[in-house]
Amino acid sequence: MVRHIVCMGVSATGKSTVGALLAQRLGGLDFLEGDDLHSEANKDRMARGIPLTDEDRAPWLARIRDWMSGHGGAGRSTVVACSALKKSYRDVLREAEGAVIFVHIVPPEDILRERMRERSGHYMGPEQLDDQLATLEPLEPDEEGFTVDNLSRPEEVADEIATRITAQ
Questions:
Q1: How many alpha carbons fall within 13 Å on the CB side of residue 66?
Q2: What pLDDT is attached to residue 19?
Q3: I want to staple 71 with a disulfide (CB 3.0 to 4.6 A). Which of 43, 76, 89, 150 is the partner?
Q4: Could you give the count of Cα atoms lying within 13 Å of 14 in the half-sphere of its Cβ?
Q5: Could you report the per-residue pLDDT of 35-93, keeping only the tens digit for each?
Q6: What gap in Å lies between CA 163 and CA 74, rounded to an integer?
Q7: What is the tens place of the pLDDT at every residue in 118-162?
Q8: With the C-alpha atoms ordered 141, 79, 12, 111, is the resulting torsion angle positive or negative?
Q9: Coil, strand or helix: which one is 152?
């Protein structure tokens, strides 16, 4: 069965690091850093501290969905790092060919802020965290997925997720 595991959450949760490790632990699945599919205009807006609108995100989410569907059509499962902050965004991703499972990665807010201050070269600045937290809609009971606290090393978080995914 083709499955796409979407590591979701606000910026600096560790979804990219954990997602890449998870892809390895699940047998070398293809991994996509969803931010790589943002348009230059979106990246420029975020770099200037301007939050993206739903309209800004729509083509980006469609590109991620289509990437997953391309793999699903070829019978390949994937792991994707994507904020997927709103249920309506996740609804778009769920249209991909194959089952889509969301893993909401959640570190404490003080750790998020520290990570955002310390990283360099990323277009998403710490001033945008409040907007992301306000936008975030946690997974609802009718959505396939689960939440994982990110309180330990990325390897341990990836191991926990892999164990839960393979048990499903």
A1: 7
A2: 98
A3: 76
A4: 25
A5: 999 999 998 888 787 888 999 999 999 999 999 999 999 999 999 999 999 999 999 99
A6: 25
A7: 756 555 555 677 788 889 999 999 999 999 998 889 999 999 999
A8: positive
A9: coil
Q: Which token pair is 74?
A: 């070829």
The DSSP secondary structure of 92-150, one letter per residue, reads HHTTSSSEEEEEEEE--HHHHHHHHHH--S-SS-GGGHHHHHHH--PPPTTSSEEEEE-
- Single-letter amino acid, residue 166: T
Six token digits for residue 147: 């939440």
Question: What structural domains and CATH numbers belong to the chain?
Answer: 3-167 (3.40.50.300)
The count of C-alpha atoms lying within 13 angstroms of the C-alpha of 103, restricted to the half-sphere facing its C-beta, is 30
Length of the chain: 168
Q: What's the pTM? A: 0.91
One-letter amino acid at 159 equals D
Collapsing DSSP to helix, strand or coil, 1 comes out as: coil
pLDDT at residue 49, rounded to an integer: 79
